[in-house]
Every structure is written in structure tokens, then in C-alpha cells.
Amino acid sequence: MNKKILIVGGTGFLGYHLAKKCISKGWSVTSISTNKPKKIRYLSKVKYLILDITKKKLIEKKIKFKYDYVVNLAGYVNHSEKIKTYQSHYKGCQNLVDFFLKKKIKSFIQIGSCVEYGNNRSPQIESGKTNSLNLKSVYGKAKLSATNYLLKKYKEKAFPCTILRLYLVYGPGQDFNRFVPLIIKGCLEKSSFACSAGTQYRDFLYIDDFVSSIFKCLKNKRSHGQIFNIGSGKPKKIKTTILLIRNLIKNGKPNFGRVKLRRDEIKVLYPGVQKAKKIIKWKPKIKFIAGIKKTITFYKKIL
Hints:
The chain is an alpha/beta fold.
């Protein structure tokens, strides 16, 4: 049977790669976003709907088809705009859940974030508790509020939801305001660019491994009502990562220490991923250097 999936935020980096994989499986794909897809992320077999999910009446008016699966990747990107950030990441999710409670969907996957853990020590694990009052960012508060709302509906209504908390996902087609493409761009353009001292440790996951985690959840009812960390579980030093990219490209001049770290910046951030391995049988397959090489090859073609 032809599966039908609704990808909310389907024109973004994550949504594009998920949609592409669904199409390769012969699935029917609908995307919801507030803007049309960039040319680089347009897929002819995707049905694109322009819709603001913070508007409950518009959701009821525009979503007409029956879907097997819903994946919510949506949310305002510029977190400095606090009202839009909170509305899109929390209220938007709430509106979707309320709408699909009335429908017989098989699975609803919410893309959460590691910021929901606040200052919890790494490796961060899903059982680690955080109060939204302790979170400093509006984005973090909105994501945690969305998680709590979903889990409440799972307990009350058996709503088939799963929350995936992501760390740093990278790969071809990501915007240049993200760490990996930003460094690749600087090196490919043979420029001198400012960066921090690079003493932080972060967790990186290649896009294909993220997409595979989605399908593992969709196939497994044991994922319902659960939170899973999605990352490599193997943190990399930022300075080492920058130097690796520079050495692979053989160009670029990173100026370490020119960008000061925030006082509250977490120095070591990475997840424990044992729960995902145990319950949904997922683990990353793409080695870091292989993923970086694939990503560099992509940007070489477009720059």
C-alpha cells in the first residue's frame, strides 16, 4: 500500500532529505511550510502546501487528505524573535496535535532538541528531568512545552507520538548559517574567518542517519510515548573538526579565538543513545570523516 506522509517543515534541510527518502520508497509526500522551497530543495513529486501552523483554523481548512504519518520539523529559525519562536515551536505543535487527535494516524513524530535538557551533564539521557523555568532560551522552553503536551496526550488519549531530540545534524544542502557548511564555505573560498578557540565538544550526525531514525520509529509501535536522543554519542572537539575540514579542502584560514564563547555556553555536549539502540534498533552508520567528505563534495559543486 502507498503510504502517505505529511512533513511539516518539509522545505527545510531535514524535511528535504526526509521527503527525498520517502519518494524513493514510493510514498505520497505532502509538505507544509510558510514559504515555497528553495530551488536547491525542490522535489517535483512533493505536494507543497503554504500554511502557518500557528493558525488553527487554517490547519482545519487546508489539510484535507488522510495521512498515515506526520513528522513535525517546523519552527521559526531566527530564535531572536521570541514571540514567533515560541508560537511556531509550541503553539504550532499543539495545533497539529489537536487536529490529528481526531484523525486515525499511525504515528506522529515531533523533532525536539537537546536544548530541552538545559544544563544537564553529558552524556545527556532521556530520563534526565528539566523544568522549563530553568531553561534560558525561549526556543528551549517552547520545545520542552511541546514535548510535555505530546506526552500528556499520549497518556490521556494514546496519541501515537514520538519525540526525537536532535544534536548537530549536518550534510548536503544545509544553509550556510550552520556550523559545518559555514566552515566548509570559508575554506572553499580560501578566506580567513573568525571562530572560537574551539575548546567545546559537540556531537555531529550525518543527515542520512537522522532520516533512518525516522523510519525506525515509524515501523515500531514501541516508540510511541517515548523520547529518543538522536546523535552519534561520540563528541568531537570543535577545533579538531575545523582543522579536519581545512585539511581535507587544503585551504582556508581559521582565526581561532576571535569569537568569544558565551558565559553560559556548555563546553561538552553530547547524548547517550542507548535507548534508541535498544528500543527502535537504531544506531548511526555513517562515520564522521565519510559524512564530512560527502558534504564537502556537495558544496564544491555549488560554490
